[in-house]
Specification:
It is a single chain. This protein is α+β, with helices and mostly antiparallel strands. Among the domains are: 123 residues, no CATH class; 42 residues, no CATH class. The protein is built from 5 helices and 12 strands. The strands form 5 sheets. Strands 3-4-5-6 form a 4-stranded antiparallel beta sheet, covered by helices on one side. A two-stranded antiparallel sheet has the order 1-2. A hairpin with a 6-residue loop joins strand 11 and strand 12. It is elongated, with a radius of gyration of 50 Å. The N terminus is likely disordered.
Length: 242
């Protein structure tokens, strides 16, 4: 039978016991996850991270109420190093990259694991992790209409001008009278006089004045019906153009 270590929230201590529990499994998973992130952050300290994991799994990190930690020595079971404000009293602290000795790393892992596991185990007690036994309204299948929708017997379409743009409007209804009322309401808002965005150009009058083949427009005769060319020729006679 294996001796394992788990966290007791009532006494705020790590205790040794036999067997495995969901709390123990969650604790070991949290240690592995945080240790993996520590290796990514401190690649030059991967060996020290592995040693720190062993220290944590052995329950050799004693977290204090004031935020400090006492970490047991792996080489001397009676020696404990103090981690205070990111500083450790061990000889390796000054030599480790960025002062990340295994004791300091172990204290950091233990603090993060304790906070994570406590939050996970406290969540069900606070009602934050309850799974619904029945599908929620959003998960339920959409309701099927009891009867098919009625057909639309009345349809009318028209074209109106809104802000200079020609818009086709189609109205549908199940009642002819109501449909016509709706159409009249729309047409009243956009009367035909305002519907034309382009002013109409008046037609150009056609000139029906007869033309002299040589001198152009002719004049109406003052002696009777007909037209004559008002141009006098060089010999003093009038043009006979018709």
């Amino acid at each position: 039978m294996t001796i394992v270590t788990s966290y007791d929230f009532e006494s705020d201590t790590w205790t040794h016991h036999n067997g495995d529990t969901p709390a123990r499994a969650a604790w070991r998973a949290a240690v592995a996850d945080i240790a993996a992130k520590a290796k990514q952050t401190l690649p030059e300290c991967n060996g020290r991270v592995d040693s720190a994991v062993k220290i944590v799994l052995n329950g050799d990190v004693d977290l204090q109420a004031d935020g400090t930690a006492r970490v047991a020595s792996q080489s001397n079971g009676t020696t404990k190093y103090f981690v205070v404000n990111g500083e450790c009293s061990c000889p390796d602290f000054a030599k480790a990259p960025s002062n990340w000795c295994k004791h300091r790393i172990a204290a950091g892992i233990a603090k993060r694991v304790t906070a994570r596991v406590r939050a996970q185990l406290d969540a069900p007690a606070n009602g934050q992790a309850t799974a619904p036994s029945q599908p929620t309204p959003a998960q339920a299948s959409p309701a099927v209409p009891a009867a098919p929708l009625p057909e639309v017997p009345a349809i009318v379409s028209t074209t109106i001008t809104i802000d200079g743009r020609r818009v086709e409007v189609k109205l549908c209804d199940t009642d002819d009278t109501r449909l016509l009322v709706r159409l009249q309401t729309i047409l009243a808002q956009y009367p035909a006089a305002l519907a034309s965005a382009t002013p109409q150009t008046p037609p150009v009058p056609v000139d029906t004045t007869p033309q002299c083949p040589t001198h152009g427009p002719m004049k109406p005769s003052t002696k009777g019906k007909g037209w004559y060319c008002p141009t006098k020729l060089a010999d003093g006679s009038w043009c006979k153009g018709r």
